[in-house]
Amino acid sequence: MDFGFASCCLFLFVVLVLQCGYGISASMAINQQGADTSQKNPMINKDDIKPYYNVWFTPKDLYKGFTMPIYFAKSDPSNSPHFLTREESESIPFSISKLDNLLSLFSIPKETPQAKAITYTLNNCDEEVEGHHICVSSLESMLDLVQKTFGSSTKFDLFTSITYPSQNSPILQNYTFLKVPQQFQVQKMMACHPMPYPYAVFYCHGHLDGSTRVFKIPLKGANGDKVDAIAVCHSHTSNWDEDHISFKILNMKPRSGPVCHIIPHNNFVWLPLVSGQ
Fold first, then answer.
1. pTM metric for this prediction
2. Contact 277, 4 (CB under 8 A)
3. Of 58, 129, 200, 274, which sees the most CB atoms within 10 A?
4. Secondary structure class of 97 (helix, strand, coil)
5. CB atoms inside a 10 Å sphere around CB 78
6. pLDDT, tens digit, 9 for 90 and up, residues 135-164
């Protein structure tokens, strides 16, 4: 495999990656988090196109030589939140109803960007969503969720986009697909996205009906940077908000067709293990 990791080494890899820099601490500015906490959904802001929205494309673009601007954030591992153990995370309330207590616990004043980040995360994680959608705050909980989603006897792999930036790499530049994107031949997938919080919290959601396809794509930037990218294509967007930023970026009519996006290097895709892939 080019950038998958065998299940026998999975736990060690997860620990190294998740503890070495993937998200943004709640002590950092909101603008650095790639999340617009003034809105319920950070991807709904059709009138304010931010640089980190440059990850979207369409299935017709899945060919060698396609070029598009892509944003790959730079992260400092020393500023990234770490996972707590399951016991530690379960000992701390995780609910918007406990917001005042949590702000006091984290020594974060009200009405600060950090407080808004925590409120944003708790509101989103408290929301009940049908299916395999949940926030996890420990590595054990994430692995349990993936195993439950795929089946108790299923082995699985972890994937993310891997960047090889040069010293002066711009975070937004044109990238070209060096090869025809290779699709993973699986029906199920689980994506996990970091949420702004003082310790590591991920919002994970499963796609189990084969309508979401996953690809690996080698990229080369205009600056010469290389990326082993993971991309996801969503076949069904009819239930997405009509103001979803992807429709604006792609100049599409709302809910009019499938869309794809590059997975940022601080996000993760879990796939059932398929022999030879």
1. 0.82
2. yes
3. 200
4. helix
5. 8
6. 999 999 999 999 999 998 999 999 999 999
